[in-house]
Amino acid sequence: MFCLFAANQIGVRCVSAPTSTVLGWARTLRFIGFFKKFALMTSELSNPPGLGMSAETGYESEETVPLRISGFLALILGLASALALVGAPLLLIPILAMFFGFFALRKYDGPAPVGVRQAKVGLVLAAGFGACGFFLPWMKTMTLGSQAEYFARQYVEIVARGEMELAMELKKNYSNRYMHNMSLKQHYEMSDGARSALEMFSQESVNKTIQELGPGGTWELDQATRVYHQFRLDRADVVLVNYDREVPLKIYFQMVYFPHRDTGVGQWHVEVCTEKTERLVAESIL
Fold it and tell me: Residue 204 and residue 250: Cα distance in Å, rounded?
């Protein structure tokens, strides 16, 4: 007779049984152990490492969430994109921010990586500051160009009407111009220096040519107005052409924009006004 003390798992008490019965119980216990090992192996294959059961979705992710540094770089560069408002070369910052932002938003599997939200914010900031940095200077250039063209046309009309005193004032800086309530004609008649300067101005060839055409002439823009910044001042190059005579007359204006130091209101003045002629280039000698 043998006595079998079974494990507490199956709750078998001490019993007296023949040898065949004991062998049967031993085989049963071995089968139960093998079944447990098989069930454990199956569970590990069906549930990948790092996944556990969840009451809501069935599985709860315990994987390490990936980190995308490019998203944080996009956010930092997006904030720095405000510097694009300073100058055109700094538009490179929002371009880099958008590059890193789109790179951080590339396709992913599994949970959303850390940095995706930061990349989206960086893209929005880069797009906003980049657009302002590009369009604000462009709008300023277009506005100054249209103002310079209009001022040049008005200047030509004044010279064509023979109002040379007013034309001379338009060639001065706003701080050197006479007051509106002052009679310019009397000033130029009373002052010897001013009268001499007026006579020299009236005898300039470009002014005499404009007066010969007369007021009300048709002046067209010969080429796009060039607006640029030089010596801390905004400048514009305007070329007007008149086809009322057999040989078209082209006049080149170089104009300077002076903002008032107190009010901030800008004033244009004609720095150069001359007839534009084509350059004569000699034929190359072979």
Answer: 15
Determine whether 123 is exposed, middle or buried from the number of CB atoms within 10 Å of its CB (0-12, 13-18, 19+): buried
- Residues in CB range of 219: below 8 A, 6 or more apart: 153, 156, 240, 241, 242
Q: Nearest-5° angle of CA 104, CA 109, CA 112?
A: 55
End-to-end CA distance of the chain: 129
Model confidence over 231-270: pLDDT tens digits? 888 999 999 999 988 888 999 999 999 887 777 778 888 9
| Half-sphere exposure (Cβ direction) of 171: Cα atoms closer than 13 Å | 16
- Do 76 and 121 touch, CB atoms closer than 8 A? no
Taking a C-beta distance cutoff of 8 angstroms, is the pair 234, 257 a contact?
yes
Place of tokens 């302002």: 132
CA atoms of 160 and 154, how far apart (whole Å): 10
Average pLDDT, whole number, for the chain?
A: 78
Gap between the Cα atoms of 66 and 74, Å rounded: 17
The residues, ordered by sequence, that sit 6+ positions from 140 with a Cβ below 8 Å of its Cβ are none
Does pTM surpass 0.85? no
Our CA angle for 19, 24, 28, nearest 5°, is 145
Task: For residues 147 and 143, give the distance between their C-alpha atoms in angstroms, rounded to a whole number.
Answer: 6
DSSP for residue 67 = B
Report the C-alpha gap between 9 and 205 in whole angstroms. Answer: 119
Alpha carbon distances (Å) from 250 to 40, 48, 145, 209: 94, 82, 18, 11
pLDDT band at 24 (very low <50, low <70, confident <90, very high): low
Contacts of 74 (CB under 8 A, 6+ apart): 97, 98, 100, 101, 103, 104, 118, 119, 122, 123, 126
